């Protein structure tokens, strides 16, 4: 259980921060940038929830919790030492990826196939979900970049990859089942 009695600690005043294993790194390190972008994504999901209802809101709530799990996973770099940790580190699981895939398949099953690229927009919820999609893609790119030189749980990258797809399909579903998608018209303004 986390207890936060004091919000500021002054420990980061010189530009570094503590990771989940206690190591201190620069606030601009690739790892901090990756989990910071995940936190940014989580905030955008919170904005999307302002206009979401019912099952969509419940799904976004689950995703917000998963994103906190994912941030906790990314902030704990020493995966080889998980067994020796004082408490079991939180890691994203393949089952979380599988859940997203199942939800994508369910939502996509009721949508007409795309015959054009679509522009971000339509309903307010769809527009917010498209923002979430693009931030999820950035978080994925940053996590892949991090994995090129540091250990990263492979399920983190898979989750972010599926999550951006989830947001895309959810945006279409939120556009009246895709009927209100804004279609790209190549060269329309030439």
Q: How would you summarize the topology of this molecule?
A:
Layout: E1 16-18, E2 24-26, H1 30-48, H2 54-74, H3 94-108, E3 118-119, H4 124-147, H5 154-174, E4 182-183
Antiparallel strand pairs: 1-2, 3-4
Describe this structure in words.
The protein is mostly helical and 190 residues long. It has one domain (20-180): Cobalamin adenosyltransferase-like (Hypothetical Protein Ta1238, Chain: A). Helix content is 53%, strand content 5%. It contains 5 helices and 4 strands. Strands 1-2 form a two-stranded antiparallel sheet. A two-stranded antiparallel ribbon has the order 3-4. The model has no long low-confidence stretch (mean pLDDT 92).
Which features does this protein show?
5% strand, Hypothetical Protein Ta1238, Chain: A, mainly alpha, two-stranded antiparallel sheet, 4 strands, 53% helix, single chain, Corrinoid adenosyltransferase, CblAdoTrfase-like, 190 residues, ATP-binding
What's the short story on this structure?
With 190 residues, the protein is mostly helical. The chain has five helices and four strands; from the N terminus they run ββαααβααβ.
Parts with pLDDT < 50 across at least 5 consecutive residues: none
Largest sheet: 2 strands, antiparallel
Query: What's the mean pLDDT score?
Result: 92
CATH class category name: Mainly Alpha
CATH superfamily: Cobalamin adenosyltransferase-like
Spatial ordering of strands, largest sheet: 1-2
CATH topology heading: Hypothetical Protein Ta1238, Chain: A
Question: Fraction of residues in helices?
Answer: 40-55%
Q: Count of helices?
A: 5
| Series of secondary-structure elements, N-terminal to C-terminal | EEHHHEHHE
* Residue fraction in strands: 5-15%
The total strand number stands at 4
Oligomer: single chain
Give me the secondary-structure category: mainly alpha
